[in-house]
Write a structure and sequence with these properties.
The protein is mostly helical and 172 residues long. It has two domains: 94 residues, Serine Threonine Protein Phosphatase 5, Tetratricopeptide repeat; 72 residues, Serine Threonine Protein Phosphatase 5, Tetratricopeptide repeat. The chain contains nine helices and no strands. Helix 3 runs antiparallel to helix 4, helix 4 packs parallel to helix 6 and helix 5 runs antiparallel to helix 6.
Length: 172
C-alpha cells in the first residue's frame, strides 16, 4: 500500500490482470477486478466482472454485494434487493452485513418506501454503528417521514462519526 489511492488501484489492476492471464476462470480474481472498477466509480464495467465471479462461484457474497452496489449506482435499483438478500442468506453473520442492509434500505428510500427504508437502515446502523453514511441515510428517511427530531439526532451522529466536514450545515 502506498499513500496514493490512485497508485494502489493501478497496482491492484496490474496484479489482477496478471492473475487473470494465468487463470482466467478464477472467481476471486474477477471479484477483485470488479472491486477495483467499482472503486474507480466505473459501475457498468464492474458489473460483468462481478457476474463472471458469480458464474464461477455462485456463493461469493462479495460478488453479490459488489454487484448490488454497482446495480444501485448504475440505476438498476430493482435488481439490488434480491442480490443483497442472497448475500444475507449465504452469510447471515458476515462482518459486512450492515452494508447489505444499507443497500436494501437505500433502495427502499429511493422507491419512496420510507417505513421499510427505516427498518433496513436501522439494522445497518445497529450492525456497524461507526459508519457515518448509514446515519445520513437514516436521517433522510426520518426527515421524509416527518420525524425531524430523530432525523436531526442521526445527522448529529453522522457528523460526530465523520472525520471531515462533509455533513456540516452551511449557514444560510
Amino acid at each position: 500500500m502506498s499513500d496514493s489511492a490512485t497508485a494502489d488501484l493501478a497496482s491492484g489492476k496490474r496484479l489482477v490482470e496478471q492473475a487473470l492471464t494465468a487463470s482466467p476462470h478464477h472467481a476471486f480474481a474477477h471479484l477483485l477486478k470488479g472491486s477495483i472498477l467499482r472503486a474507480q466509480n466505473r459501475w457498468q464495467e464492474a458489473i460483468p466482472e462481478y457476474e463472471t465471479a458469480l458464474t464461477l462461484d455462485r456463493n461469493s457474497v462479495g460478488a453479490l454485494s459488489g454487484l448490488g452496489f454497482c446495480k444501485l449506482y448504475a440505476g438498476s435499483i430493482d435488481e439490488v434487493i434480491p442480490l443483497e438478500e442472497q448475500a444475507i442468506r449465504l452469510s447471515p453473520r458476515d462482518r459486512d452485513i450492515g452494508f447489505w442492509y444499507y443497500l436494501i434500505g437505500m433502495v427502499h428510500l429511493l422507491q419512496s418506501h420510507t417505513d421499510q427504508a427505516i427498518v433496513w437502515l436501522e439494522k445497518a446502523c445497529s450492525a456497524i454503528p461507526a459508519i457515518a453514511a448509514f446515519r445520513t441515510g437514516l436521517a433522510s428517511a426520518y426527515a421524509l417521514k416527518g420525524e425531524t427530531e430523530r432525523a436531526a439526532a442521526e445527522l448529529a451522529e453522522a457528523r460526530r462519526l465523520s472525520s471531515d466536514d462533509r455533513f456540516r450545515v452551511s449557514p444560510t
